[in-house]
UniProtKB/TrEMBL annotation:
Limits of the Molybdopterin cofactor biosynthesis C (MoaC) domain: 16-151
Enzyme category, top tier: lyase
The encoding gene: moaC
Entry EC number(s): 4.6.1.17
Reaction(s) catalysed (UniProt annotation): (8S)-3',8-cyclo-7,8-dihydroguanosine 5'-triphosphate = cyclic pyranopterin phosphate + diphosphate
GO molecular function: cyclic pyranopterin monophosphate synthase activity
Listed name of the protein: Cyclic pyranopterin monophosphate synthase
CDD domains: MoaC_PE (cd01420)
Residues that bind substrate: 76-78, 114-115
Length: 162
């Protein structure tokens, strides 16, 4: 059971994957999700009329901070020195959704999928927190990795984003 890229050691115990022998390379991952809300809520966000302030600015900072702290949140996740984190928001008035895209990058020996997922999800939760007083029925949906680049397994794109 002892494989160099597993979270389980020879004794069956959980441990951090040993990436010591992996060569550093450019790694990038993109994760997305969306927040479904009432049309009036989206209008308030657009007009910057919510009591808690600029929803997208606060959610962006929360997502960035979460990506940087991913190893503190997810057991056995490597602490990484991310070189870039970008979080974008797109309001879709037709569907009354806010789409969130988080992109994380580094040059290192392990991927950044967990950091991108954490950034997108925490940005969504922060958006929810800032709007819940006017729309407690919002839903956060569709969290997934849609693209990754680099590493031994190479580049990948989710079939819905090709």
């Amino acid at each position: 059971m002892s494989c160099s890229l597993t979270h389980v050691d020879a004794k069956g115990q959980a441990n951090m994957v040993d990436v010591t022998k992996k060569k550093p390379s450019h790694r990038m991952a993109v994760a997305t999700c969306f927040v479904q809300m009432q049309p009036q809520t989206l209008a308030l966000i657009d007009a910057n009329q919510l009591a808690k302030g600029d929803v997208f600015a606060v959610a962006r900072i929360a997502g960035i901070q979460a990506a940087k702290r991913c190893a503190d949140l997810i057991p056995l996740c490597h602490p990484l020195m991310l070189s870039h984190i970008d979080i974008a928001f797109k309001a879709d008035h037709q569907t009354s959704r806010v789409y969130i895209t988080a992109r994380c990058q580094l040059t290192g020996a392990t991927g950044v999928e967990m950091e991108a997922l954490t950034a997108a999800s925490i940005a969504a939760v922060t958006l929810f927190d800032m709007c819940k007083a006017v729309d407690p029925g919002m839903q956060i949906e569709g969290l997934m990795v849609v693209e990754k680049q680099g590493g031994k397994s190479g580049d990948w794109q989710h079939r819905s984003h090709t």
